[in-house]
Amino acid sequence: MGAILNGLALAKLRVFGSGFLIFSDYGRGSLRLAAIMELPVIYIFTHDSIGVGEDGPTHQPVEHLPSLRAIPGLTVIRPCDANEVAEAWRVMMEKKYDPVALILSRQALPTWDRSKFAPASGLRQGAYVLSDATDGKPTVLLIATGSEVSLCVDAQAALKQQGVEARVVSMPSWELFEQQDEAYRESVLPTDIKARVSVEKASRFGWERYVGLEGDRIGMRTFGASAPLKELQKKFGFTVDAVVSAAREQVNRVPR
After folding, report:
1. Is 206 exposed, middle or buried (0-12, 13-18, 19+ CB in 10 A)?
2. Model-level pTM greater than 0.70?
3. Structural domains of the chain, with CATH
4. Binning pLDDT at 50, 70 and 90, where does residue 126 land?
5. What CA–CA distance (Å, rounded) separates 223 from 60?
6. Which of 74, 92, 126, 189 could potentially form a cystine with 173 if both were Cys, beta carbons 3.0 to 4.6 Å apart?
7. Secondary structure letter of residue 41 according to DSSP
């Protein structure tokens, strides 16, 4: 079977499946075996967060992103807009041995004007500077995936009005980012900038590797709830005000 699937990959064909992210639990055996057998299967998961809303916590994935990232050999990609989705497909179709989990939202997301923001081709490196501070000298880093990138972009504008320069980093894939050389990773997440905030509508587990032990991680500490999206965002702290507040606390914490 492995030889057949690898042959299909070489022929520019892909085996794929799709479903809600919450139900990736039921496909765990397939995901794990694809990674072990180095089969370039594409797993498309939608309804990727508590943004599912009224369906309640039974359909709202919380721990699923970090659990997928824990599978060796599986590349997890959570794009922030349609441009990143297109780039993700380019990356996936080049893979000959690695399975990929493409994580997509239920709710509509803004499509960034790439004449004003960095090219979506940055997805290929796993993380890139979507919107930088003035003169490329940020005092705080805002790092996010998927739908939460828009919160960081809005927070960046609000912080600028308050005299705080922020850099917005879109990080659709930890795995792709870790494959980059040290110089590139340093260019995106400079080690001398200690004020950092990550934003993701999932378990906060693992984000300390990018924000540090003292950085702030805006994420889920519990399961979700059954309510409209806007109410859930407010309840669990996924708002522009919450990101701005966390960023300001980080800037005030770090000695200048």
Report:
1. middle
2. yes
3. 2-253 (3.40.50.920)
4. very high
5. 8
6. 126
7. -
